[in-house]
Amino acid sequence: MSSARPLALTMGEPAGVGGEITLKAFAARTNADLPPFLVIDDPKRLTALATEMNLNINVAPIAAAADAHEMFADRLPVLDVGLSGTYVPGKPSPTSAKAVLGSIDRAVKLALAGEVAGIVTNPIQKSSLYDSGFRFQGHTDYIAHLCPGSSTPVMMLASDTLRVVPVTQHIPLAAVPGALTTDMIVETGRITAAALKIDFGIQAPRLAIAGLNPHAGESGKMGTEEETIIAPAVAALRELGIDAMGPLSPDTMFHGEARAHYDAALCMYHDQALIPIKTIAFDSAVNVTCGLPIVRTSPDHGTALDIAGKGVASPAGLIAAIKMAGQIAQRRGL
How far apart are CA 51 and CA 42, in angstroms? Predict the structure, then answer.
């Protein structure tokens, strides 16, 4: 796989496994057929990590994104993020927040300027960012904030066997019924359908819309949100020409036969979406942000602080995210 422009990988939490899986992904670039990428990180940090992991990788600082494509065959191109101070594997610190966010900022800037084909973000430790004054829920809304004119960002978790979209994301479960609105579901469905067409090449996307309550409310006996909020949203999506079905009982939506009838499932809350896909495709699911003017993917796992520094983290999720970013960029003609 090749691209006219490289992808940009962000540093992620330096106390996590981002550096380790980045190095492993680069080492596997030929066998995994990965598109060229650069990393926005600390070259010295990555060089030290490669030595600790016994990986024979030549880390090469670069001055501009355009330098990455030519050297990718035998050197890992790195734009220096300016990480200052020390970090300890498994122990995140707010002192690294400036570099963590700086890596994201620069990646988005490069993508908006057309210097990279898209960005792949390594996992961040939100708690340490919050301690430093970070006021966004996470990667998705922060990146949307950096992209002028973006629509509401939509988080899709995608694999070869299932795609899911949580309508509400990182909020307490008790807050979900009050947060759900018909307009929110319609907007999420509209953006999801557009992404399926543009980024996944599905010309007539089919959306399965989950209910909120057990048995999709059982005709109002187990909750009324299906009748008052979700069913009107399904009707509105159909009026927009989108093939939407539901509200469906969440407990029967994710087995193999059911999945054959839709291209993405819209779920009402975080775990309703993420539990099935992490069960089915834990190592290969990719976080894709829909509704942005740039391509953005991320591995569907966290910073893995418990194994950071041990060299045992699997790069499978990051490799899948890099591949998917490259595929989306090609479909967009980037």
Answer: 15
Q: What is the CA radius of gyration of the chain?
A: 20
Top-level CATH class of 1-150+292-334?
A: alpha beta
Nearest to 7 by CA among 68, 52, 56: 68
Q: Do 1-150+292-334 and 154-287 share a fold?
A: yes
Nearest to 314 by CA among 27, 13, 15: 27
Q: How far apart are CA 55 and CA 193, in angstroms?
A: 42
Residues 6+ apart with CB under 8 A from 114: 5, 334
pLDDT in tens, 242-299: 999 999 999 999 999 999 999 999 999 999 999 999 999 988 899 999 999 999 999 9
Q: Which two tokens stand for residue 123?
A: 């996992």
pLDDT of residue 27: 95
Distance CA(107)–CA(7), nearest Å, equals: 9
Hey, where are the domains in the chain?
A: 1-150+292-334, 154-287
What is 154-287's CATH topology? Isopropylmalate Dehydrogenase (3.40.718)
Report the alpha-carbon distance of residue 84 to residue 11 in Å, rounded: 13
Listed in sequence order, the residues at least 6 apart from 129 whose beta carbon sits closer than 8 Å to its beta carbon are 94, 97, 100, 101
* Residue 150 and residue 144 in contact, taking contact as beta carbons nearer than 8 Å: yes
Q: What is the pLDDT of residue 2?
A: 46
